[in-house]
């Protein structure tokens, strides 16, 4: 709320900032109490107690549209408190304090709860209940977002629609056209920063040479 109030020039704007922030706080509390995936699931119910993890913001300009919490995040209740978070912060060129500054970054995954693991120990896809129930109203309560970082195919499908290419690699490779053709908030597609994608990074050196410098400059521009 503080940054929003600092930017508001008049009493009416400040009142609107307060209203929006309070409305978002109330709505986020509803999300954190959500139990759809166990009480009215699509397919099999969540195999453990729900613990939705998200950090929406009415003042942030940057949205990290990620996939779903992993095991460590499920335990901590804070997004990206794991090796993936370390790599993502390195990609963005930001400190831990900057990353968790609610006035700078909103973090809203496609699935809010840890979805469980498959037989090979990999995380399952985000739960299908979350986005239809919550995502559009959450986005409407974050009007200052002007940069959306779509991490993985699920976020890219929701935020990019027909602009998403057939594969993640093709989508990320086409980042310049996606950026230029973004309507409203700028969108930049990213792979997941998981250690499981280390091979992908080695096979696609252009990501670190071309996309990351551009990404860091856009992040720094918005952080001031």
From TrEMBL:
Pfam family, one: UDG
Record InterPro entries: HI_0220.2 (IPR047124), Uracil-DNA_glycosylase-like (IPR005122), Uracil-DNA_glycosylase-like_sf (IPR036895)
SMART domains, A to Z: UDG, UreE_C
Domain of life: Bacteria
Protein name from the UniProt record: Uracil-DNA glycosylase family protein
Organism placement in taxonomy: Bacteria, Pseudomonadati, Pseudomonadota, Alphaproteobacteria, Hyphomicrobiales
């Amino acid at each position: 709320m503080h940054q929003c109030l600092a930017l508001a020039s008049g009493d009416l704007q400040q009142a609107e900032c307060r209203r929006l922030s309070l409305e978002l706080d109330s709505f986020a509390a509803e999300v954190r109490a959500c139990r759809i995936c166990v009480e009215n699931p699509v397919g099999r119910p969540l195999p453990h107690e729900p613990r939705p993890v998200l950090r929406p913001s009415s003042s942030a300009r940057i949205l990290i549209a990620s996939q779903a919490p992993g095991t460590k995040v499920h335990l901590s209740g804070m997004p990206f408190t794991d090796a993936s978070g370390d790599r993502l912060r390195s990609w963005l060129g930001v400190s831990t304090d900057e990353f968790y500054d609610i006035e700078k970054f909103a973090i809203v995954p496609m699935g809010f709860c840890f979805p469980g693991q498959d037989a090979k120990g990999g995380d399952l896809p985000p739960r299908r209940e979350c986005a239809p129930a919550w995502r559009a109203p959450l986005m409407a309560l974050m009007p200052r977002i002007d940069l959306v970082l779509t991490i993985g195919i699920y976020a890219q499908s929701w935020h990019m629609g027909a602009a998403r290419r057939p594969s993640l690699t093709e989508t990320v490779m086409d980042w310049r056209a996606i950026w230029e053709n973004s309507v409203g908030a700028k969108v930049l597609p990213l792979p997941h920063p998981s250690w499981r994608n280390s091979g992908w990074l080695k096979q696609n050196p252009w990501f670190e040479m071309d996309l990351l410098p551009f990404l860091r400059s856009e992040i720094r521009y918005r952080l001031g």
